[in-house]
Amino acid sequence: MHVDRLQVALVGQEDRYMTRIRYVFGLCAAALLIAAQPAFAASPVPSMDHEHGSGEAGSSSLSSPAAELRVMLDRLLAEHAFLTIEQMRSGLTHAPDLAAAAKAVEANSTDVAAAIGSIYGDAAIEPFGEIWRAHIGHLVDYAVAIGKDDPDAAEQAVDGLAVYRQRIAKFLTDANPGVDLGGITDALDMHTAQLIAFIDAEHQGDHAGAYDIEREAYPHMFHVGDALAKVIANRFPEEFSGVDVAYSAAGTLRVTLDRVLAEHAFLAAEVMRSGIANDPSFEAGAAAVSGNSADLEGLIGAAYNDAAAASFRKLWDSHITAYVEYIQAARANNAAGKAAATDQVDQYVAQIAGFLAGANPRFDANDLSAMFREHARHLITQVDAFEAADYDKSYAIMREGYSHMFDAGEALATGIAGQMPDKFPSDVAAPATDAMAGHGMEALPLLLVVLTALAGAATGAWALRPRSLRGRRWGSARRD
Prior knowledge:
By secondary structure, the chain is mostly helical. It has helices at 13-33, 65-93, 98-120, 125-147, 151-175, 182-203, 207-235, 243-246, 249-276, 282-303, 306-331, 335-359, 365-387, 391-419, 446-463. Helix 4 (125-147) runs parallel beside helix 6 and helix 12 runs antiparallel to helix 13. The model is unreliable at 1-60 and 433-480 (pLDDT under 50).
């Protein structure tokens, strides 16, 4: 089946996407030449040797009902993207973990529907859940169909996705009367197109390209969650107060750390499993993990300085190397090697915790060490379960590990924002930089946009390149 023939595209999106690319890269160029916006007003870059402020003035809790809503929707929607990608990848080759992946996706779908019900009422759970599950079914059907070289079944799946597009737009519009949801529904369209493009790349054996798209699809769902949370909080202000905290510079720091750390957990789990299975995607997955590590290094640099970021990256890479050694030992059935690699992970985890505690007196090295050690155990036990063909357990642990990283992100963001209230205030909105901000698509702070664009410029350009905007359209006409 020719990839372009079934490449899903969105009506009128070509110009919009190219405008977005030009906007983001233009913004980055400008950001490198001008001072940061007021939320990140120039202040001395803190040394790793000295505390930057007491954190008492200008800092407050990063939690509010609106902030928790934002984090919840971001977490569930981004997890949906990752898990659905896993199910599609398994469906493409009918891998032995397909049923377990489907169970994990269903568990996430139940959580997403429950979240919608908690907002719009229990009566919304069933209709939303049916619509949501339908689009997942069509995506997996598409993956299975191209794996079997069945163009008719693939065409039918794409047609089903076109119907889903109309149904989800109607549901959201009916649930939020009088609100312009064009940006959100367009973003959901883009999400579906990304997953189709992902499986097309996998089918072609372009594992690097597939991981590039995966790394675009995951943060994209944070944008969807951010926008939907803002709509909901503005509609129900009594239930979801604290919008200013949720979308402040400190609140966005929390979400950004959540995103990068949780992506690390999922990508590392994927790569460890592919290493155990001797899958040809292993090298591409390892490169994706390295790209995520670069993003995390950039965040440390933005908060502290480049020298601190480089030192952190060395420790972070060492703990990832220890995971690779664990995989190698597992494949060789070397129990002693596995134990030695686990000990190395623990040593590097302690060093990372000590490093961060040395940079920020608000951190306790023992608490951080326990937090990172739990993360390490999630990764190791999920790959042990995968190796033992206990796929249900492997996916359950992976989901637990993913959720845990949101706790880690909150802990780190609270400490950093408290240490640097001038740089990450909780009462000043993060500057909007997204081209879709008019539709409520909350963007990352300016310096984080710079980081993301510089670290992932090739990824973004690949995922949005014109080739992915050719071919079959969603539906027969533009949305009115």
